[in-house]
Amino acid sequence: MYQVKIMKKSNVLLPQYETSNASGMDLRADLDEEIVLRPGERALIPTGIHIELPAGLEAQVRARSGLAIKYGVGLVNGIGTIDSDYRGEIKIPVINWGQEDFLIRPGDRIAQLVICKYEKISWVPVEHLGETQRGSGGFGHTGIE
Ligand SMILES: O=c1ccn([C@H]2C[C@H](O)[C@@H](COP(=O)(O)OP(=O)(O)OP(=O)(O)O)O2)c(=O)[nH]1
Ligand SMILES: [Mg+2]
């Protein structure tokens, strides 16, 4: 298990795994007061945490499926990428795709953080790529049945 430095405001709880083998740790809104996200509205919600990941690890900010299904609330950037060299505050770009106002209260768990390994590569420019059965087929070319 990696040990990762985290800097946080004193009022902020450490993100934690909610079950023993969860891959994500829930992220809480670090707000002074509740905010209302109207339908179609987006906001960048602070978490009050800064982390120092070793090179080779990234953190992904992902939506919580319960909020997505119940309220249509997700992340406007799909999945947020926290680079290992980022030292700023982790923020959550939420959007209300639902039809009702969505209330975010201080401390609400509104997204989750998943730590992942990533690889670095260097490019080798070429004129031809290796052949495969798929070739250039994509975007549903194998059908749906
Ligand atoms: O959901 C997110 C996504 C990003 N970030 C922070 C961490 C990340 O390392 C930095 C930059 O993110 P990204 O590369 O996705 O944004 P960009 O628009 O390309 O900004 P930059 O030019 O700073 O890389 O912003 C967050 O706090 N939350
Ligand atoms: Mg970037």
TrEMBL record:
Organism of provenance: Thermotalea metallivorans
Pfam families cross-referenced by the UniProt entry: dUTPase (PF00692)
Biological function: This enzyme is involved in nucleotide metabolism: it produces dUMP, the immediate precursor of thymidine nucleotides and it decreases the intracellular concentration of dUTP so that uracil cannot be incorporated into DNA.
Domain of life of the organism encoding this protein: Bacteria
Record-listed substrate binding positions: R64, S65, G66, N77, T81, I82, D83
SUPFAM superfamilies registered for this protein in UniProt: dUTPase-like
Assigned EC number: 3.6.1.23
Family matches, as InterPro entries: dUTPase, dUTPase-like, dUTPase-like_sf, dUTPase_trimeric
Protein name in UniProt: Deoxyuridine 5'-triphosphate nucleotidohydrolase
GO biological process, one term: dUMP biosynthetic process
Pathway it works in: Pyrimidine metabolism; dUMP biosynthesis; dUMP from dCTP (dUTP route): step 2/2
Catalytic activity: dUTP + H2O = dUMP + diphosphate + H(+)
Keywords: Hydrolase, Magnesium, Metal-binding, Nucleotide metabolism
GO molecular function term, any single one: magnesium ion binding
Family that this chain belongs to: Belongs to the dUTPase family.
Domain named dUTPase-like: residues: 14-143
Cofactor field: Mg(2+)
